[in-house]
Write a structure and sequence with these properties.
globular; Sulfite Oxidase, Chain A, domain 2; 4-stranded antiparallel beta sheet; single chain; 5-stranded mixed beta sheet; alpha+beta; 251 residues
Length: 251
């Protein structure tokens, strides 16, 4: 039996007719932001205390996979650098793993494929209100961090991407509890095929205990850090910094 998926946040559209049209659209109304994301700092500790962050997200059978899996956020980075990598079928793409590590890495898709692989069929929940079930495959992020010799002083892992927001790479972060969770993977395959561009080719993060905006696409760099203070405006992610999204988007 598939355990019910507890959604932490319910979006309610009132008489004003609020409609969330995409994870990549900034919610402009200050009142809406206050209602949707109020209490992040006050309640973060309580949220963690009330949830088992080591628990597994529900996994599903192949016959339960969604016939359509929408894209969230950027659909194509659209930069010259990304276009060149795409034209070469990502043969020249490398994932940089650096920061507080003993052995910085530059990994190709073949290198990532040489790690032990995990395949999982999970449900993706987007903050705009839709969900879909799909299959993902790739190495565990924790195994990659171990191969790089992550230092004891590291507390967070920061992801930087090929898509640009305001002229700068998209960024996100998670802590070590999620980084070493067995379902947190660097996915290069979706539904038994290489990722397509809309879903984050050539590599995306899958952090299954969190909402979709945490699942950074078009990964270029993974950096171990001891603090989020120097990342963007200090809240650890693009949407957290600019639209007051929760940093810990647990579901």
């Amino acid at each position: 039996m598939i355990a019910p998926l507890l959604r932490r946040r319910t979006l309610i559209a009132g008489g004003a007719g609020l409609m969330l049209t995409g994870c990549d659209r900034v919610i402009q109304q200050p009142t809406v932001r206050t209602i949707l994301f109020k209490g992040e700092d006050m309640h973060r500790g309580l949220q963690r205390a009330l949830s088992n962050r080591d628990a597994l997200a529900p996994e599903f059978r192949p016959d339960q996979m969604s016939p359509r899996f929408r894209t969230n956020g950027t659909r194509d980075p659209g930069t010259a650098d990304y276009a060149a990598l795409r034209a070469g079928r990502f043969a020249d793409w490398r994932l940089t793993v650096d920061g507080l590590v003993a052995r910085p890495l530059r990994l190709s898709l073949a290198d990532l494929g040489a790690f032990p692989q995990r395949a999982q069929i999970t449900r993706h929940d987007c903050v705009e209100g839709w969900s879909a079930i799909g299959k993902w495959q790739g190495p565990r992020l924790g195994d990659v961090l171990k191969a790089a010799g992550m230092r004891d002083s590291a507390r967070y892992v920061v992801f930087r991407c090929a898509d640009l927001y305001g002229g700068a790479p998209y960024y996100e972060s998670i802590d070590l509890i999620d980084a070493f969770h067995p379902q947190t993977i660097l996915a290069w395959a979706m539904n038994d095929r290489f990722l397509d561009v809309g879903h984050g080719a050539p590599l995306r993060l899958r952090v299954e205990r969190q909402l979709g905006y945490k699942h950074a696409k078009y990964l270029m760099r993974v950096t171990a850090v001891d603090s989020l203070a120097g990342i963007g405006k200090g809240r650890g992610g693009y949407w957290e910094d600019n639209v007051d999204y929760d940093w810990w988007a647990g579901i």
